[in-house]
């Protein structure tokens, strides 16, 4: 049985530039981040014996490009939280002795589309038969499908839903690498361009280029690395459906409710132990669902929790302190950037550093509530 | 009503052909688990509740309620924005994505839990889509 803190992150970095990087193909965004993470850990490609990444990039492409001969690979691809699952799977593989040092990479030319990929639903797939004919066009039309039901069930106002974006912009203002740093008001959000009612432009994530990479090894070896080890206390994963119209409950994600509590159970922590939280915010409702499904607040209470500035700078539970997918960056699969910010916060190196972070939780979503992964990190080994 | 050209066209598979064949005849066909009696969607030749292959196809009432939706404001082939992408909760329990026709595509007209009824809408000779419209007063 793997124990909390047995495996650590010893290298972490984003691509040198994020935002618009038209001079890098998708595979180079992976490699750029991987080279930065190896430099962070003081490693060379020959030191890596495990590789994980998510499609359309396959582990064999990354391994070959970087000159790595892996003994273990993972190409789990469940959307933007795949990296949380890679961390979980890599920890298990290191524990099992399949490999010693794992590199997890992400790179996506989401904005510039240099060797990027767009994947329309195959007409014979279930999505192609039972969702595509009704006019969805990507995540902005699908992810918010459950929102009106959530708002009606819990009496959430448009102003309360807008507050998510306002608070995250406050965090982004403290982060020089954030795409959007200018303050916004509730009125700004509610007067921004309508995309898919009830959501407007400022409630939808960015589309950018960028990458990130993580290096994991056993904590017993972690003391030999130049950076402060970031211990993995626990993790969880689950999937529900690729079809948002078929999720069991429009006010709650089943995948969140499996992955989150499993990570907490494994880590042996309570909610009050969490100093810092990342909830993958592809759209403004995600932090509300995450707070409730992970059990930080009761059902229907997230609207007030966020409205009352508990997640804002100075609040008791800082969330999405890089500015999030709404204001920092969002390549398409943002989970890697949520993990990077959790690592920075437990290392004490974040641009908007929260004082005295011991435990950070990074919670990711994949697809449209289709999958979930949760990772609990700490700078202290239990 | 007729559909504008350009919509993504579903392609039936052996597991879903009965559903699309039913719509061609104006019927909404669901399936029921032989063990629990519970209806389910999308179509598959076994029960997602118990795994039994003992399932039956039956005709749904075509009645349901508006469970949730978005109103999309950007252009998509086959659609004139703004248009609603909706989810109907069928009387029998399952939910499905759809469009609401014969109704203004506005938050004021599209009220959650309003009653809907099936409006089978022909796409071509083989495919009829399960669209819905506000239920006519009984």
What does this structure look like?
The complex is a heterodimer of chains A (382) and B (138). Chain A is of the alpha/beta class. Chain A has a single domain, classed as Peroxisomal Thiolase, Chain A, domain 1 (3-Layer(aba) Sandwich), CATH 3.40.47. Helix content of chain A is 33%, strand content 18%. Chain A has helices at residues 26-41, 59-66, 82-96, 126-130, 139-142, 147-154, 158-172, 186-191, 219-222, 254-267, 286-293, 302-307, 324-327, 335-347, and strands spanning 7-14, 50-52, 72-74, 102-109, 194-197, 199-200, 209-218, 230-239, 276-279, 359-366, 371-378. In chain A, the strands form 2 sheets. Chain A has a 9-stranded mixed beta sheet, sandwiched between helices. Chain A has a two-stranded antiparallel sheet with strand order 5-6. In chain A, helix 1 (26-41) packs across helix 2 (59-66). Chain A is globular, with a radius of gyration of 19 Å. The model of chain A has no long low-confidence stretch (mean pLDDT 96). The radius of gyration of chain B is 15 Å and the shape is globular. Chain B has a 5-stranded antiparallel beta sheet with strand order 6-5-4-7-8. A 3-stranded antiparallel beta sheet of chain B has the order 2-1-3. Chain B has one domain (17-134). Chain B has 138 residues and is mainly beta. Chain B is 6% helix and 36% strand. The longest helix of chain B has 8 residues, at 17-24. Chain B has one helix spanning 17-24; strands at residues 29-33, 39-40, 55-59, 63-72, 83-90, 95-98, 115-122, 128-134. Chain A binds chain B through residues 120-121, 123-124, 126, 128-137, 141-142, 144-149, 152, 193-199, 243, 245-246, 250, and chain B through 7-13, 16, 20, 41-42, 67-74, 76, 78-79, 82-83, 85-87, 95-99, 107, 112, 123, 129. Strand 5 (194-197) of chain A pairs antiparallel with strand 4 (63-72) of chain B, so a sheet runs across the interface.
């Amino acid at each position: 049985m793997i124990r909390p803190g047995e495996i650590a992150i010893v290298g972490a970095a984003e691509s040198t530039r994020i935002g618009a990087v038209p001079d890098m193909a998708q595979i180079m965004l992976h490699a750029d981040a991987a080279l930065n993470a190896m430099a962070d850990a003081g490693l060379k490609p020959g030191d890596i014996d495990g590789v994980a990444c998510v499609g359309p990039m396959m582990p064999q492409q990354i391994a070959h490009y970087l000159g790595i001969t892996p003994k273990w690979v993972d190409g789990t691809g469940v959307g933007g939280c795949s990296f949380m699952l890679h961390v979980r799977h890599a920890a298990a593989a290191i524990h099992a002795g399949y490999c010693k040092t794992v590199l997890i990479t992400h790179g996506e030319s989401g904005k510039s589309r240099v060797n990027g990929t767009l994947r329309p639903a195959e007409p014979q797939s279930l999505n192609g038969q039972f969702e595509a004919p009704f006019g969805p066009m990507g995540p902005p039309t699908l992810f918010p499908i459950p929102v009106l039901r959530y708002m009606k069930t819990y009496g959430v106002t448009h102003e309360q839903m807008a507050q998510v974006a306002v608070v995250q912009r406050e965090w982004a203002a403290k982060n020089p690498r954030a795409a959007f740093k200018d303050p916004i008001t509730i009125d700004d959000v509610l007067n921004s361009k309508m995309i898919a009612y009830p959501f407007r432009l400022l409630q939808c994530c960015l589309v950018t280029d960028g990458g990130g990479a993580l290096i994991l090894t056993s904590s017993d070896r972690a003391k030999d690395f130049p950076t402060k080890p970031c211990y993995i206390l626990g993790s969880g994963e689950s999937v529900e459906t690729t079809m948002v119209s078929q999720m069991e409950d429009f006010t709650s994600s089943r995948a969140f409710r499996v992955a989150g509590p499993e990570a907490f159970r494994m880590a042996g922590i309570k909610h009050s132990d969490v100093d810092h939280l990342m909830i993958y915010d592809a759209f403004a409702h995600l932090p509300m669902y995450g707070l409730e499904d992970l059990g930080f607040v009761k059902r229907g209470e997230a609207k007030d929790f966020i409205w009352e500035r508990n997640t804002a700078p100075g609040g008791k539970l800082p969330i999405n302190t890089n500015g999030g997918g709404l204001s920092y960056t969002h390549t398409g699969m943002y989970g890697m950037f949520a993990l990077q910010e959790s690592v920075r916060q437990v290392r004490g190196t974040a641009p908007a550093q929260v004082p005295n972070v011991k435990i950070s939780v990074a919670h990711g979503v994949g697809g449209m509530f289709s999958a979930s992964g949760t990772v609990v990190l700490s700078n202290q080994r239990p | 009503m007729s559909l504008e050209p350009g919509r993504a066209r579903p392609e039936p598979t052996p597991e879903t052909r009965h559903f699309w064949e039913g719509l061609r005849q104006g019927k909404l066909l669901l399936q029921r688990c032989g063990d629990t009696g519970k209806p389910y969607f999308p179509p598959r030749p076994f029960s997602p509740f118990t795994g039994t292959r003992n399932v039956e196809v039956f005709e749904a009432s075509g009645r349901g309620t508006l469970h949730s939706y978005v109103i999309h404001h950007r252009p998509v082939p086959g659609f004139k924005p703004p248009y609603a992408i909706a989810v109907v909760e069928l009387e029998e329990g399952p939910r499905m994505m759809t469009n609401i026709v014969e109704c203004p595509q506005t938050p004021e007209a599209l009220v959650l839990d309003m009653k809907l009824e099936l409006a089978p809408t022909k796409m071509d000779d083989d495919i009829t889509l399960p669209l819905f419209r506000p239920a006519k007063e009984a």
